[in-house]
Amino acid sequence: MSKRKLDSIALEAHQPSKRLKAHPGDTSHHPEEAPRATIAASTSAMEMEVDPTTRPHSSQSTSPRETTKRAREEEEEDSSGNNDGQLSKPPPQPQHKHKVRKLVPPRPFPTVPASVSATGPRSAHTEGKNYICITRRTELGAYLRRCKDVFLKDGYKTLHLSAMGAAIPHLMQLALSLPGMLPFPADEVRTEVTTGSVEVQDEVIPDDDDEDVAYRTRGKSTVSVVITVGDGVDEPPPAGIAGKGGGRKNKLGKGRGPAASSGKQKGYGKRGQKGGGT
């Protein structure tokens, strides 16, 4: 053998075979196996489309949009099926309209005490001035002046304040502002707050005249504040205040001119008497 042949044989012995090195599934070196792989892949795809049970479990999970869409389709099918027969839900009934009139709530204490005439002038009332119902219509400054006069002018040592519903914040401002305006030491002024509720009634008036008027009851929150100065014992009012506005006194000779000041009427003196002349 020539030297060139020996070198080529040795080179082929050292190089591995391409057929052994190729992947079993690789059909690039086996052209006769390519049609078989294509036919098998198409057959498996057809089987997966025909039989849904062969799909993997992960493909069965649907998105929220698909779930909502399916639920809407089922509702439409149910509604279309119910149209032929009876409706599942009855039609809404028309509501009767009515008007509500709020009645006057009960007062925590009477406007005028039982010992005072309710028909007389309000300026003559000397009792019950330390019981005040707070409303939103009256300003805070007016309440401060009124409460201050109750302690200083009328001589009361206890003040009762009451409010209901939306007037409660107005009462809280008054209860916090009043102790600083009173000329008493801070340790002598005591404030007691009590909360509660009261039942109020409303009148329900229907639009139809044939129907009767109904009443409904509801609850409303209340707050009561008691401000006490010292021992809380009321003092008598100063002189001149108890009889203020108590009425007018008829004084004789009260009027104008000298005849009124002397208490004599014109024509009835010594010279004016009938038959008293010469």
Q: What does this entry show, briefly?
A:
This protein has 278 residues and is of the alpha+beta class.
Textual characterization of the structure:
The chain is an alpha+beta fold. It has a domain at 129-229: Alba-like domain (Translation Initiation Factor IF3), CATH 3.30.110.20. Helix content is 31%, strand content 18%. It has helices at residues 3-14, 18-21, 34-50, 64-84, 140-152, 168-181, 258-262; strands at 98-102, 131-133, 158-164, 189-206, 214-229. A five-stranded mixed beta sheet has the order 1-4-5-3-2. α5 packs across α6. It starts with a helix and ends in a 16-residue tail after the last helix. The model is unreliable at 18-25, 239-254 and 258-263 (pLDDT under 50).
Distance between the termini: 207 Å
CATH fold-level name of one domain: Translation Initiation Factor IF3
Q: Spans of 5+ residues with little confidence (pLDDT < 50)?
A: 18-25, 239-254, 258-263
Instruction: Name the CATH homologous superfamily of one domain.
Output: Alba-like domain
Q: Which architecture of one domain does the CATH hierarchy give at level 2?
A: 2-Layer Sandwich
Q: What top-tier CATH class of one domain fits best?
A: Alpha Beta
Question: What is the succession of H and E elements?
Answer: HHHHEEHEHEEH
**Proportion of helical residues:** 25-40%
Q: What gyration radius follows from the Cα positions, in whole Å?
A: 53 Å
In round numbers, the mean pLDDT is: 72
- Gross morphology is elongated
GO molecular function, one term: nucleic acid binding
Keywords: Nucleus, tRNA processing
InterPro entries: Alba-like_dom_sf, Pop7/Rpp20
GO biological process, one term: tRNA 5'-leader removal
